[in-house]
Specification:
- This protein is of the alpha+beta class and 178 residues long.
- The protein has helices at residues 2-17, 84-89, 91-98, 161-173, and strands at residues 25-26, 29-31, 37-39, 44-51, 57-63, 68-76, 103-107, 113-117, 120-131, 134-144, 148-157.
- β10 and β11 (148-157) form a beta hairpin.
Length: 178
């Protein structure tokens, strides 16, 4: 009996440590409990859903064509719509501070765009950096709603960006952010 109890405790602990696989993909659309939704096109797979910092969570998506992992960071929160432009204006500086250990991390000036996605304010940027002497990029998009904040990102060799960018844009442009 003790052995079965210990086995149950072990298996329960092991299962709790695993990332929660998204079970809310219906009709090629990921539907989050926060109300955030986005397309999961053919050749994309939801790899995991896991807690992140500050009460947020992340969904990892793999593009089987380029084999690049996209990250979708979601945080539920309430904000006055009038405050969103000021919050959005700080996104680039905040990410730059987070990337202080990335060699040569710098935004491409022509890549920084204020736009809208699903009727919500959005900001996009591409940053270049070097890792182990290899040219790398980070592809970033932030979307802010009154009830949720979403950040889409992916890091890859710079040579993979052209193939990946349009594929990830299909996911990003489909986003519904409450």
């Amino acid at each position: 009996m003790l052995q079965r109890s210990l086995m149950f405790v072990f298996l329960s602990s092991f299962a709790a440590a695993l990332p929660v696989l998204a079970q809310s993909v219906e009709n090629d659309t990921y539907k989050d409990a926060s109300g955030v939704q986005f397309a999961v096109p053919p050749n994309w797979t939801v790899v995991s859903r896991a807690p992140a910092s500050a009460g947020a969570h992340t969904i990892l998506l793999r593009d089987s064509v380029t084999n690049v992992i996209g990250n979708v960071w979601i945080k539920s929160r309430k904000v006055d719509p009038e405050a969103i432009p000021a919050l959005m204006s700080r996104r680039l500086d905040s990410k730059l501070a987070q990337r202080n250990n990335f060699e040569g991390y710098k935004y491409r000036a022509d890549s920084i765009q204020n736009t809208t996605i699903g009727g919500r304010p959005a900001l996009t940027a591409i940053a270049d950096y070097t890792r182990g002497g290899k040219a790398m990029v980070e592809y970033l998009t932030w979307v802010d709603g009154e009830k949720s904040r979403v950040a889409f990102s992916a890091r890859m060799p710079a040579s993979d960006l052209a193939d990946f960018e349009g594929r990830f844009d299909a996911v990003i442009q489909s986003a519904v952010v409450p």
